[in-house]
């Protein structure tokens, strides 16, 4: 008979995968909640190196979730102030807007602040588009990471 804690852990891990593409569900944190629910309350064990790998992947997913766009803005040459404003906008919009609102809001913040700082329209648009690309790329990476966490967990717990 499958233990309840294992089912709860798998439920959290599945929510983590869903959360990588649905706003307001913290993908990395849900995945970590599943892993650690099993570690602390489950009947089995996970090898420490596997646990470390799953933890690092979960933390990376959580970081990408909130800072993928701002990091892309920085890579495009945006100033630290613009990057900080984009990060704050991403966190605030996380609570009040859907995925389109988050992307549009962060892009708007980067574009307007770059224009305000004297950048040309082309440069401001380039930096805003890099930021949008970073947001989309971070979503894809979150999806891949949370799927890997789920599969790694299942291999570690169910197969081995």
From TrEMBL:
One protein family per Pfam: DUF456
Record protein name field: DUF456 domain-containing protein
Keywords assigned by UniProt, alphabetized: Membrane, Transmembrane, Transmembrane helix
Provenance organism: Natronocalculus amylovorans
Transmembrane residue ranges: 35-64, 85-113, 133-159
InterPro entries associated with the record: DUF456 (IPR007403)
